[in-house]
Each structure stands twice: as C-alpha cells, then as structure tokens.
Amino acid sequence: MKNQKDITAILVEFGNGSQKAYQMLFDSVYDELKRIASKQLSKERENHTFSRTDLVHEAFLNMIDIHRIDWKNRAQFYGVAAICMKRLLIDYARKKLTKKRGGDIIKKTFIDELIPGTENAKEIVKLDEALQKLREFDNRMAEVVDYRYFGGLTIEQTSEVLNVSRNTVKRDWAKARGLLYKELKDL
Fold first, then answer.
1. pTM (2 decimals)?
2. What is the rounded distance in angstroms from the CA atom of residue 142 to the CA atom of residue 176?
3. Staple 150 to which of 17, 49, 78, 86, CB 3.0 to 4.6 Å?
C-alpha cells in the first residue's frame, strides 16, 4: 500500500477532478478498503449476501459521487469509506424488514462488546436510530463512534480527521458508548 503522503496527494488530485487520480486512488486504497469491509461484514450474519468486494465497490462508487467532500488525508478517506459501508449495510437491513422480504436473524455485537447477543435486522435499525439520537444530541460524539467503531480509526486518526485533541476524542468515545449502551440495553 502506498504511504500516507502518496494517498493524500492522490486524494487532492482526485478532488481537483483528475480522472487519472480515480484509478490511482482505487488501486492504492483497495486492500485497505477490503480490510474495512471485512470488519464491517464480521458484525453481520454469516450468510450475508454482500461480499467484501461488493461492499468495497458500492462504497467507493458512493464516495466518488460525494463532490462536497474536501479530501484532506487518508484517515478521513478511510473513515468516510467505513461510514459509507455502514450506511449500505443499514439500508440493507431496512430492506430486510419490509413485509415482502421478512427479517432474518443476524449475529452481531455492538459497541466494544458491551451489548453481546444474537441480533437481527430490527436491532441494526435500532442501532442506527440510537446513533441518530446521539447525532442530534452531540454530532461530534456520533462522528467519533462512526470513525472509531465503524471505521476502525485509532484515537489519533479520529483526532486528526475531526481536528480535535486526542483527549476530546477519548472523552467523546467514552460518553458515546455510555449513552448508546443506555439506549440499546433493552433490545
């Protein structure tokens, strides 16, 4: 994988509309996106119909359509990629809840294994609703959850993406986990 400076330079070129940068970016980040997709899918049921490759390609296509993002660095890029993958999986869970498709059981563990157990599509949707409530209460805390839990970013990377101190990220992470635990404990 290319180093951080190379990817950041490619992101800047891509942000300026370079078609060549599109392919260079995809080639440079593909392996890491597959790792993120594996992490996302490991929280889903075993026979999920999304493959790692499907999830990577769908998320990448969604991301390149987001023209309003000012790409700053690779940590931000991977965080946004993870959030796109999360959205795809939540949308998939919502579709599974429609009457014509029914709801399948999904094995999933939420927020640092604080809420263990067998989960289904309804609980995934509940998690998304809890995150939306958190976002209304404190958007930065919700962003910390997105980047840390779903994106797999470190405290340092999250700090860099959000442009806040590491201590702020640590505090927000602890508060957010507590609030989400309280919201989801009765599932």
1. 0.62
2. 7
3. 86
Q: Do residues 4 and 32 make contact, with C-beta atoms less than 8 angstroms apart?
A: no
Report CA 187 to chain centroid distance, whole Å: 22
pLDDT tens-digit readout, 78-136:
888 888 888 888 887 777 776 445 444 443 433 334 333 334 567 777 888 888 999 99
Residue ranges per domain, the chain?
4-184
Residues 11 and 63 sit within 8 Å (Cβ to Cβ): no
HSE of 59, CA atoms in CB hemisphere, 13 A: 31
Beta carbons within 8 Å of 29's beta carbon, 6+ residues apart: 1, 7, 74, 77, 78, 81
Is 80 exceeded by the pLDDT of residue 71?
Answer: no
The span from the CA of 51 to the CA of 143, in Å, is: 26
Distance from C-alpha of 138 to C-alpha of 140, rounded to nearest angstrom: 6
